[in-house]
Amino acid sequence: MSMDMLDPAADAIMPGFRRLDLDTTSARIRVAVSTSNHSGPPVLLLHGHPQTHLTWYRVAPRLVEAGCTIVAADLRGYGDSSKPPGGEGHANYSKRAMALDQVEVMRALGHERFAVVGHDRGGRVAHRMALDHPGAVERLALLDIAPTATMYARTNREFATRYFWWFFLIQPFDLPERMIGADPEHFLRRHIAGQTKNPGTENEALFREYLRCYRDPAAIHAICEDYRAAASIDLDHDAADADARVTAPLLALWGAKGTVGALYDVLETWREKALDVRGRALDCGHTLQEEAPDEIAAELLRFLKG
Predict the structure, then answer these.
(1) pTM (predicted TM-score)
(2) Beta strand segments in the chain, E
(3) Are 107 and 78 contacting, i.e. CB atoms less than 8 angstroms apart?
(4) Which is catalytic among the residues 49, 90, 237, 286?
(5) All domains of the chain, ordered by start, with CATH?
(6) 120 is catalytic
(7) Which of 72, 103, 119, 208 would staple 32 via disulfide (CB 3.0–4.6 Å)?
């Protein structure tokens, strides 16, 4: 089932998109679908933590102008998508379950095969999608991540200090939920400010939308479940697929001023996981699509057009 949703605040930030709620097997997913009558390649955009699909507000219109058919989705647990219970072993927030949501969304919209662009958590969902649904993923672009299993395996003091929330959010219910819930705006502002390295890229209206979603206790719990899954069931899935390789062409982009580029040889980490890898650093921090939208759009268009 699908329902058109009126969302004046989202429309003001990212106009030109039709917003729908689409039911999947186990969630309801909010999507923004480009309304231009293009027949260009379908592209799925997936955000990270703590953003929503609106993080693409400066990139998605550029892709539409170039002829792409754009679907920007809120991951389950984030934004205006549903927030199911975590389930046994955090299975409902495994990247496998979150990837299946998005494949079902794209099929419901008539896209059996598509490119996917994922930032942060969305990149981890996209990586799992490319392994579980290779027939659906035509091209894969990953923004500012190294593979989850690699990052955990190589954890040291510097990584644990820079990415402390990876270890805070996985603590048992309900410690992180209560601590964030005591002042979600402070936590959210500090988190975003710590990862944004290019001054002047902030957008207060966008932040208010992120905060609207982040104030929901169900969202805080879902986000913790996402990270708990990453440190448990997702690692089990990765271990089971240790010899598998992504067959779709993979583009890795990362911020030269961020943690991932500082601590890892990003291309080498992805060449351990995929057969066809290319990419480079951009002059920004973690949130490339908000800090360097022109460069991201140009890189994506070159990649998507093969």
Answers:
(1) 0.98
(2) 2-4, 17-23, 28-34, 42-46, 69-73, 114-119, 137-143, 250-255, 277-282
(3) no
(4) 286
(5) 2-304 (3.40.50.1820)
(6) yes
(7) 72
